């Protein structure tokens, strides 16, 4: 049994907490806004009075919050965790914040080790233990926590600190840009009079095969579930643009995708699943 603190109880944070509790670990939980921990407390988690209180006896601290400012507030704000994390603990950040933020956190928290471990997957992936966890940091530190992370899914070690954070931004940018392209092209086939079933049948034998297989129910409007808000996808594109600027490169296709996302968000779809960009562009 490991003493774990989970900071951030959005949909993913709650699902991760339930999964860890179910595996028999000791859990303290905290969220910046109240009211999201009732089921976890009933299941045996400890409600912490503050972020600092949550981590005082933790062996592992998991943060999973919205963006870099939220992570800064949790770690370094009033009653933040940074002064209270035990020297022998490890911070595992599963947020999508980018490598620059991870580098800054790792420097300020030293000697407490930091793993950047953002995930690919959504709540159903957590519940079935099928997340893909993109890990950057010291390989020896990961080795100490591989068993714990394996409860949630498959850890994939990518290299030095920030590697996982960078690959998560790249993955999310690729996903959003591909959905925008697909939405525009489906608008074309709609207007040309092709049926959606025939179009998807044709696309699934090409380079979009994997996407079509996974997204078919949503593309046909049969699945209205929300797994990842469009506003968050747009936030991640902004982080990718920041990193591209630091590296002296351009992401012109992603920039076009961002502009289309902005149109959909202005139309009130920011809180919808990011797949809503496809139906928006088909309208």
Write the layout of secondary structure elements.
Blueprint (H helix, E strand, L loop, with lengths): L2 E5 L3 H12 L3 E5 L7 H5 L3 E2 L3 H5 L4 E4 L4 H9 L13 E4 L5 H11 L4 E3 L2 E2 L2 H5 L3 E6 L2 H12 L2 E7 L3 H29 L4 H8 L5 H11 L10 H18 L4 H18 L6 H7 L1
Parallel strand pairs: 1-2, 1-4, 2-3, 4-5, 5-6, 8-9
Antiparallel strand pairs: 7-8
Helix pairs in contact: 8-11, 8-12, 8-13, 11-12, 12-13
Descriptive overview:
The chain has 283 residues and is α/β, with parallel strands linked by helices. It has two domains: 3-160, 3-Layer(aba) Sandwich (Rossmann fold), CATH 3.40.50.720; 166-282, N-(1-d-carboxylethyl)-l-norvaline Dehydrogenase, domain 2 (Orthogonal Bundle). Helices cover 53% and strands 13% of the residues. The chain has 13 helices and nine strands. The strands form two sheets. The protein has a six-stranded parallel beta sheet with strand order 3-2-1-4-5-6, sandwiched between helices. Helix 8 runs parallel beside helix 13. It starts with a strand and ends with a helix.
């Amino acid at each position: 049994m490991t003493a774990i603190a989970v900071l951030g109880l959005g949909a993913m944070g709650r699902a991760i907490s339930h999964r860890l509790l179910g595996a028999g670990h000791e859990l303290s939980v905290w969220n910046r806004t109240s009211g999201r921990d009732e089921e976890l407390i009933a299941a045996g988690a400890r409600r912490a009075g503050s972020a600092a209180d949550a981590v005082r006896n933790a062996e592992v601290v998991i943060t999973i919050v919205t963006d870099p400012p939220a992570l800064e507030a949790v770690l370094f704000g009033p009653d933040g965790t940074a002064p209270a994390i035990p020297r022998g603990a490890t911070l595992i950040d599963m947020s999508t914040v980018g490598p620059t933020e991870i580098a800054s956190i790792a420097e300020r928290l030293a000697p407490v080790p930091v793993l950047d471990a953002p995930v690919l997957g959504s709540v159903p992936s957590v519940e079935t233990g099928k997340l893909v966890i993109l890990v950057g940091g010291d390989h020896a530190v990961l080795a100490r926590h591989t068993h714990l992370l394996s409860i949630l899914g498959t850890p994939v070690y990518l290299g030095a600190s920030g590697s996982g954070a960078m690959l998560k931004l790249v993955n999310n940018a690729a996903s959003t840009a591909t959905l925008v392209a697909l939405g525009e092209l489906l608008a074309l086939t709609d207007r040309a009079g092709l049926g959606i079933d025939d179009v998807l049948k044709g696309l699934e034998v090409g380079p979009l095969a994997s996407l079509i297989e996974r997204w078919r129910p949503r593309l046909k409007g049969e699945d209205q579930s929300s797994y990842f808000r469009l506003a968050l996808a747009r936030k991640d594109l902004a982080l990718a643009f920041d990193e591209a600027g630091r590296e002296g490169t351009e992401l012109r296709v992603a920039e076009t995708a961002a502009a289309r996302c902005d149109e959909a968000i202005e139309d009130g779809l920011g809180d919808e699943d990011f797949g809503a960009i496809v139906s928006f562009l088909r309208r």
